[in-house]
Amino acid sequence: MESNVFWDIIKIVIGSGLGIAIATIIPLLFQLRKEKEEKAKIKADTSNVSADAASKIVTAASNLQDAYVELLNDMKAKTIEYKEEIDNLSDRIRELEISNKELKRKIEESTTIINELIKGVHLLTEQIENLGQQPSWNREGG
Fold first, then answer.
1. Is residue 119's pLDDT more than 90?
2. Which residues touch 110 (CB under 8 Å, ≥6 apart)?
3. Residues 6 or more apart from 6 whose CB is under 8 A from it?
4. Which residues contact 138 (CB under 8 A, 6 or more apart)?
5. What is d(CA 99, CA 91) in angstroms, rounded to the nearest whole number?
6. How far apart are the C-alpha atoms of 71 and 65, rounded to whole Å?
7. pTM beyond 0.70
8. Taking Cα atoms as reference points, which of 135, 131, 133, 106 lies closest to residue 122?
């Protein structure tokens, strides 16, 4: 009988241990499952946040690109305007250079004529004086 009692005690100890083990494992399994679900939810939330952030970055990049293209087009238009203005001013400069050359030629021609006239007036004044006459015009003031 002692052997049955011994086995009964062992059965009780094993049964108690098994009961304690089961009582410990079941809440542990529930806790692990709950943690797994929370991790999955956090991962899904994080994925949504990452997707939202990526979407916002793409939108911002698109807006920036649109602004850059608009600025670039404005600069191209201004460049065309400036080139046309430069071409017009270059044409005007060429015209003024031609006009300036013509005016210089006319001034030189007029200077030559004036010098010849002054020489002629001096020569005539001397001739009048050599004839013993007093000219009405004099060099000091008319």
1. yes
2. none
3. none
4. 125
5. 12
6. 10
7. no
8. 135
